[in-house]
Amino acid sequence: MTLIPEEVQESTSQESTLLYVGKEVILPVQLPEFDEEFYKWKKNFWKNKIRGIKKIVAPMVDQSELAFRAMMRAHGADLCYSPMIHAHLFVNDTTYRKNAFSTLPTDRPLVVQFCANSPETFLDACRLVEGFCDAVDLNLGCPQVIAKRGHYGAFLQEEPKLIAEMISKVYKHCRLPLSVKIRVLQDLPSTLAYAKMVEEAGASMLTVHGRTRDQKGVLTGLADWTFIQAVKNSLSIPVVANGNIQMPGDVEKCLAETSVDAVMSAEGILYNPYLFEGRIMPNFMAAREYLEYATKLNANVSAIRAHIFRFCHYSLLKYEDLRHKTSVVFNLHEFVEIVDELEAKIRAEVGSVHEWEKYIEGAKFETLHELIESTPHWFSKPYIRPPQINGPSESDFRVQRRAEIEKIANTTGLSKRQIRKRERRRIELEKERSKKQSYPICKRCKQPAGANCENLLCRKCCKWTCVREGKICKAHRFNAERMKEKHETFLASKAAYEANLTPDIEV
Length: 507
Known about the structure:
Elements: H1 6-14, H2 36-49, E1 55-57, H3 66-73, E2 79-81, E3 85-86, H4 87-92, H5 94-100, E4 110-115, H6 119-128, E5 135-140, H7 145-150, H8 160-173, E6 178-183, H9 188-201, E7 205-209, H10 225-234, E8 239-242, H11 250-258, E9 262-265, H12 267-271, H13 283-296, H14 301-311, H15 313-318, H16 320-328, H17 332-350, H18 368-374, H19 396-412, H20 416-436, H21 459-469, H22 480-501
Parallel strand pairs: 1-2, 1-9, 2-4, 3-4, 4-5, 5-6, 6-7, 7-8, 8-9
Helix pairs in contact: 3-13, 6-8, 8-9, 9-10, 13-14, 13-17, 21-22
């Protein structure tokens, strides 16, 4: 039984051909120029569009991919962002371009986000996605170490001239409206000046993450909505709030307290994809539904693995064997088996989970801690980073793992360093073994089948089946248009052959 809503099934089957920015897309050397009327349309684009938008899926590296966007659109999302894409690689590497971004005609409204530190490269990347999305976005909010090394994201905020030049260049020469995502600075006056500069340079919408660049990891803390409200009151373009959207009711609370035009969520929806609908669900249901989208839309293994880990975070802490399996498998059907096994374990532990509504029916959780502590581990629910008190904090998994290593060391006499080294070797060996065993068997010829073939066939048998039965296969790239022509040719040949075999009957 499929978990994907019927209307979504119809749209994904009708628009089954994935769209990529292929190597055949070549940019004209001459930069386009536009008249004042067009610039006015671009500047006002989000003012008109945002009226029907309140809940937004944030850009997340390897996480807001097409399959997850499709799932979120079915569960309350009004607008989705692509994962953050590296502009330089997107412009210069066609393989990266195909792996980093794919879409469907039904994947709208859609914003493609880039990180960049060169006006020319940023402009080229934005021009490449014209026709594939509704707008583009500049990432000025990534606080990770890789962004510091690559000189992009939040580590450009000390260079307002470079930022203004990048925004202005795209505003003048790209057909797509441009929005920008920032983090707040250390004080309110600096933040307001920063936001105003972005607006004046040509941005038509601004997303404000209510944390500073240093608020990450164990120092994450709470986002400051008062800064976001002040930015909203000082600008004429739409403002989107980001931060502290973790539990049902947070979206409405943020809209009321900040007066922003819309609210964006990242981590909250990664752990609970039903957050925009104001509910929580058993984690294996969320994982199974996502895997259906991942199968239909050819999601990559790294994205699938990350989503399963987040949906089932609390259960995988309890069932260490499943956590380990999730970290080493490389095939879609193996992830399905893990989710099936997780459901079986949960049902064996708690009996019928069909009565899961009793845990949340009529419940009003005032805090995140109350939500997490009042519901069983088998719900998809937010993750809270442990606070840092007099030193670095540790996650539940690290504490649990340290105790296990301590026990092994006491039993075997090995050093903890040696135990960790052997563990790494064992995991790498299992990953290699899983890669080698990851191909299912073709159900027609018993040779290895395509890893993600929905017909469970090798390429040759899949083509044979698609031609005769009018099927398609995204894994083998047998699209509807190509197979329709071959299928019709096959039917015509079959009819002609059968007509020649039919004897004339005299009456």
